[in-house]
Amino acid sequence: QWIYLNGSYVQKENAMISVYDHGFLYGDGIFEGIRIYNGNIFKCKEHLDRLYDSAKSIMLDIPLAYEEMKSVLIETVRKNELRDGYIRLVVSRGPGDLGLDPRRSPKANVVIIVEQLAIYPEEAYLNGLKTVSVSTRRNIPDALNPKIKSLNYLNNILVKIQANLAGVGEAIMLNSQGFVAEGSSDNIFIIKRGIVFTPPCYCGALEGITRAAIIEICQKIGIPCKEEPFTLHDVYVADEVFFTGTAAEVIAVREVDARTIGEGKAGPITTRLLKEFRAVVE
Ligand code: PDD
């Protein structure tokens, strides 16, 4: 397995960076999770756009120009000979001293890992996941903007821990105002009376690329889809609920906080959207 590390391709065992890296010391950096379907990098432009936007926002100089990064991504995928897989692209502030001043970390670290993906079993897509809401709150734009896909994932880790304790795979995070934001690493959608809803990004949702793909598919096939704030109550009484993400794709939810959603399995619109999504990627 070849890993791209600052201009070189190295084996997994040799892929190492300094303990002074500010990604490690402070979570100072950004990342992307990207899928490879049939040897193609899915939504490459969208992921690179989000990466460079995140970098600009936190004043992180990515040492590769956009087109160079694209070539390096393609080359890393090619070298690993994977037709289907997952890419983790990480850019951290790079090594500095123990102070947090980014001016003392002039050289960012760039790492690209390509792997096989352990996704949910197919059964989960048919039967849906059980999920719970958790007490961890998503920061909304008064603090770190959720549009920045940063290495600060402690909120999300805390959600994951709460999900683990509840024995579920994904959980629902609210923002500090009590509106639904997203999952630990997925966006959330609900469907009520044929209308699809997802929280606007200002509610604390990452501007997910799968989320955008689903909104686009809805428009294409004529299912109304709205970005609107909603509460847990709306989730409980929804006809269908699903999560979207690069890793998860479109995964139905059958239970939220012990309330059965719809028929307790993937509903018709979710099933249709998954089918349409898979038709796009395959
Ligand atoms: N997830 N929200 C959060 C907090 C995320 O980390 C992710 C991505 C998403 C979904 O965004 P997208 O559709 O662009 O992947 C939402 C991980 C890293 C992944 O699925 O790869």
TrEMBL record:
Keyword Ribosomal protein among UniProt keywords: no
Entry-linked Pfam families: Aminotran_4
GO CC, alphabetical: cytosol
Protein keywords: Amino-acid biosynthesis, Aminotransferase, Branched-chain amino acid biosynthesis, Pyridoxal phosphate, Transferase
Listed cofactors: pyridoxal 5'-phosphate
UniProt-listed Enzyme Commission number(s): 2.6.1.42
SUPFAM superfamilies membership: D-aminoacid aminotransferase-like PLP-dependent enzymes (SSF56752)
Transmembrane segments: none
Oligomeric and partner information: Homodimer.
Official protein name in the record: Branched-chain-amino-acid aminotransferase
Organism: Paenibacillus psychroresistens
